[in-house]
Structures are given as structure tokens and as C-alpha cells.
Amino acid sequence: MFKRGDWALLLEVGGGYRTVAKVGGGVVQTIRGFLDLDALVGAPYGSVLSSSLGVRFMALPATIFDVIEHRFKRKAQAIYPKDAVHIVRVAGVGPGSRVAEAGTGSGFLTAVLAWYVRPWGVVYSFERRLDHLRVAVDNIRSVGLDPYVELQLRDVSASGFGLAGLDAVVLDMGDPWAAVPYAKEALKPGGALAIFSTTVEHLVKSLAAVEEAGFCEVSVEEVLARRWKPTLGEVRPETFGVVHTGWIIAARNC
């Protein structure tokens, strides 16, 4: 049953349009007409709403990824869910983890990390640009994850993290190689390092820094996700989609 303040995924019945909106948020505008979100308060999951244009929408509880995709404000380049979840895996992030992230951006990856460290963990996220940090604050608060995130305006490539004994450090920034030595200082023995690189040059410089710092169990992986058309009689790969986005370096503090 929906409660006021929940996020709802609204799927056009018989169509391809989808959006996310907050239950109890009054009337919202979509390209399919206006929808009254107050009508969903107390309604069961799967309820159907009709827009002002007569378009019917089924309402389902939105996942954290639905909200990030449809409702997060974007100030900086955002990491794709396929890469964010892979980073969670290789960094061993889970309930109770203490994680540092350098390169908050708009908070997309920050939110995913915070979702996984709940209910006892914390994400220390560092950003060097105030305009990016302000957007991230709003995004993180909109999904109620602010109790698990500590945001700081700080250039870790110049001054380090100021932390120790971390379970994982994630670098998603323009010059991660400059922060690698500081990441090693901040990690506990056996802690995990994950770096997201978008170009070959970026990847090579990051790998060189990881090797020089003495990390072990180093790996490089690229995550490819290809959507298929799920229509009976027409099942085949989609013609267009997101393929290459970057590489993920994973290593352990040895």
C-alpha cells in the first residue's frame, strides 16, 4: 500500500511511457496529461490512475534505480546503473560498510553506495566543486539516504581523505591516479579500491598509480549490457542501446 511520500513508478497501460513521481505530491504534469498523485495515498500497489487526457497508468513502488533515472537532477556526468552495481560487487560494499567516494558529482553513485551500506554503514563522499555538491545534497535527501552519507567539499587528490580503516574507496574523478596513494592510506588491510575510467589513457595512468602504490589482486573489467525486445514473435536484440561506458579497476590493499 502506498504511503504519502513514497516514490511511485507510473507505467502507461498498453504504451511505452514511464515516469516516477512522489505519492501525495498533488497534481503533476506528464506528456500524457496531468496526474493526481494524492489519489494514490492508501492505494494498493498496482492501482490504476487516469490522466487528464484519459491515459491510464499502473502505479508500482519505485526502486532506487527508478528514482535515480527519472528524478535525480544532473549537474555532472552520471555513472550508469550497470557500472554502479558492478562497483558495489567488486568493492564488497554491503550493510555496515564504511566507504569513501571521491567525485560525488550529482550523487548518482553516492545514492547507490548508500543504499547498500544501510542500515549501519556510511558513505563519505568528497567533491571539489560546490555547484555539484549542492545538487548531490538535494538528490540524496530526496530518497531519504542522507543519514548514511557525509558529503564534504574537498579535493582528495591534494589533501587526502582524512580517514582511516575504510572498507572500500571508490574513485570516479578526472584524475584518480593522484588520489590512489591517499586511498591506500585510508583503507584497512585487505580493503578494496575501485576506479572508474572512461578512456584508455585514463585507464593506463590509473593502473600505473595502482601498481606503484603496491595494491594487489588488480583486475580491469568492462560491463556490457544489451537489451532485448521482449515481445513474443519479435524477440531479438534492441537496435540501439548503451554499450561501452568505461572500465572498472578493482584492487585490494595488500
UniProtKB/TrEMBL annotation:
S-adenosyl-L-methionine binds at residues 106-109, 127, 132, 155, 172. Pfam families: GCD14. GO terms for molecular function: tRNA (adenine(58)-N1)-methyltransferase activity. Residues 73-230 form the tRNA (adenine(58)-N(1))-methyltransferase catalytic subunit TRM61 C-terminal domain. InterPro entries: SAM-dependent_MTases_sf (IPR029063), TRM61_C (IPR049470), tRNA_MeTrfase_Gcd14 (IPR014816). Keywords: Methyltransferase, S-adenosyl-L-methionine, Transferase, tRNA processing. GO terms for biological process: tRNA methylation. GO terms for cellular component: tRNA (m1A) methyltransferase complex. Transmembrane segments: none annotated. This is Beta-aspartate methyltransferase. It comes from Pyrobaculum calidifontis (strain DSM 21063 / JCM 11548 / VA1). The lineage of its organism: Archaea, Thermoproteota, Thermoprotei, Thermoproteales, Thermoproteaceae.
